[in-house]
Amino acid sequence: MSHKAGFVNIIGNPNVGKSTLMNAFVGEKLSIITSKAQTTRHRILGIVNGEDFQMILSDTPGIIKPAYQLQESMMDFVKSAFEDADVLIYMVEIGEKELKDESFFHKIINSEIPVLLLLNKIDKSNQEQLEEQVQLWQEKVPNAEIFPVSALQGFNVPQVFNRIVELLPDSPPFYPKDTLTDKPERFFVNEIVREKILLHYKKEIPYSVEIDTEEFFEEEEIIRMRSIIMVERETQKGIIIGHKGAALKRVGVEARKDLEKFFGKQVHLELYVKVNKNWRSDSKQLRRFGYSGDKK
Question: How far is CA 138 from CA 90, 98, 117, 118, 131, in A?
Answer without folding.
Answer: 13, 13, 9, 11, 11
